[in-house]
Amino acid sequence: MQYVVSLFSDRDLYDEYKIPSEHITNSHWRFYYRMLEDMIDKMNINKIDEMNVDLYVQGRNDKFQKFYKNCGGYDTIQEAIDIIETANIGTYYHEVLRYSAIWKLYKAGFEVENNWEDIESLTYEELTNYYEGMLDEIFSNIDMGQDKVFDIKSDVRTMIKRADEGVLRGLPVASRALNAKTNGMALGNITMVGGMSGVGKTFFTLNQLLPSVIKEGEKILIMCNEEDMGKWQQEIVTWVINNKFEKHFLKSRFYQGDFSNDEKRLLKKSVEWLEEHIEDGLINFVNFSMYSMDKAIRLIRKYATQFDTKYFIIDTLKLDNDIGSTVTENSWLQLQQNMVKLYNVIKPSENNLHVWVTYQLNKTMKNRYLDQSALGMSKNVADVVSTLILLRDVLESEKGAKGISVKDKHTIEKLSEDRQYMIAFLDKNRQGSTHEQVVWEVDKGRNVMKDKGYARISQDY
Question: Which of 40, 61, 86, 112 is the most exposed place for a label (fewest CB within 10 A)?
Fold first, then answer.
């Protein structure tokens, strides 16, 4: 009751605290909430008062009006508004989610009544962890999570055999040059890709992971808190047209519309290619309305155990911004702790997964040579990652005859002043070396990326 009435009392709270209506277990208050949903989301009514509510109700059928009257009409809302405190909306919100979860657990056959003493005082997050822990215990090996002491020679032959079979190699990235340095995305590890805003972290991620996921048939879950699914679909379609069909199509055309007949044919062909080459459930996507590492971890556990997914993307890693989270002087410590929590879930001795994380660097680039200091105050977030890739565009001064030299297997060449390039610094690389940088020729508008080779940028002192 308090949750729904708070939204009627202060319409602005709806945008921040709205939830699917099925979470509201009381039928009368669910009815009022759906009224509010309809008025705001469908009818764009921004002022929620008695007059607008009455006008809305008068426009509905007799059955609706009768039920509204049986619920007490607007008097029910007004009487409740006089006694609730909208400042407590966070508490009301979590209580709705908590009771909804308890009710669904009960209907699913969980022993709610027998465990009531244990769960009655738990918050929503604590309740989530309680039952996730119970499920983990049921489905995990009995020894999982227990620390054991082994003789160092134990199963060394098995280790060699697994290495020979390529088990330790990990899913390769698309770039041969980068793959030669990092040896793929080994399970039980985290890859972090850092870059300033606009450098192309999502562009880089898409170009490196999408081809391998499709080729190897390896499931992946993309978790975003900035870009919606439509944006990722545009990126993928653009990639298909320019890389698989080798045609010219700029992703900016999605924002301009009015496609030509040739463009429509290309777009249709790209969708058909996706439907043919990407199996259902191979690439899954979620866009967090409010992000927290706990939510990401819950999804990782779910997709790992229920759908046998081993590879995950978090784009972009940020401070928690869900309900109840606040930015304080200790926020960077929280971010570091979140990365430790993430690693504890995906490490080899637990679920043995790989997570690819993108992260925004400082807003200004102080040095040409990128290292962990570019992470700023949050540099310790990289403590648990196995591979730290730091990206930037190649500078104009690094092109041409006086610019950097780039070598591949057979040649050493300078970079053309007429083309665009991206360079990656491997500040941390547990599966390979870090002394050389990887260079690509890029066309970010077309989602095209080609290996150029390796360079050596001098460190700034």
Answer: 61
Residue 415 lies in a domain: no
**Residue with token string 């590890």:** 189
Dist. CA 345–CA 349, nearest whole Å: 9
Q: What is the per-residue pLDDT for 325?
A: 56
234 with 97, same domain?
Answer: no
Q: At residue 142, does pLDDT exceed 50?
A: no
Asked whether residue 184 falls in the same domain as residue 321, the answer is yes
Q: How many CA atoms lie within 13 A of 461 on its CB side?
A: 2
List the CATH number of the domain containing 219: 3.40.50.300
- Nearest 5°: the CA angle 330, 335, 341 is 125
145 assigned to some structural domain: no
Any idea what DSSP says for residue 214?
A: H
Strand, helix or coil at 388?
strand
Beta strands (DSSP E) in 294-353 are 311-315
C-alpha 103/C-alpha 423 separation (Å) is: 53
User: Average of pLDDT values for 137-157?
Assistant: 62
Instruction: Read off the CATH number of the domain in which 86 is found.
Output: 1.10.860.10
Grouping H, G, I as helix, E, B as strand and the rest as coil, residue 131 is helix
Confidence of residue 144 (pLDDT cuts 50, 70, 90): very low
State residue 137's pLDDT score: 59
Statement to judge: residues 271 and 311 lie in one domain: yes
What pLDDT score does 143 carry? 44
Beta bridge partners of 185: 171
Same structural domain for residues 275 and 193?
Answer: yes
Q: What is the pLDDT, as a whole number, of residue 364? A: 74
H/E segment holding residue 265 = helix 261-277
53 and 195, same domain (yes or no): no
